[in-house]
Amino acid sequence: MSNFRPTVLYTAACCIGSKEGTDRHQVIIDIYNMYKPKNRPYKITAKDPWCAAFVSACFIASGCPDLIPIECSCFYMKNEAAKRGIVRDPARYIPSPGDLILYKWEGKSVVSHVGIVEEVNGSSLTIIEGNYQNTVGRRRIKLSYKYIDSYIEVPYG
After folding, report:
1. Which of 16, 36, 52, 143 has the maximum number of C-beta atoms within 10 A of its C-beta?
2. Whole-prediction pTM value?
């Protein structure tokens, strides 16, 4: 198996600036919805939260959908990744570029946002996220960011 890590990162970076409600956002939704088989048959709409669909679409478009659970729900993505044994505790794992990061926002009981780790620089991370301020954008955080729930270690091989 070839290493799809650079392809996934390139695909995600090419989507930066895709704003909710635009044609570029619709392409992300269409890529996700057209892929079969999915973990669950839910078809995402333009009005749904779309961070997990964005991550899934990046892996689909990069030709490696089997590496992660293809999902439009962070909750179900994490559950399926746990079944595969690839969820990592942020207190014991330093992510690599191409891994996924899951957030649990204050007041939430389950994970509610996901992104793709683009860069690890010392104690800092750069993440590419769909539905970040209603667009695909970059978030820069510390490894100690209090809202990190877990990572998904993507088995690139």
Report:
1. 52
2. 0.97
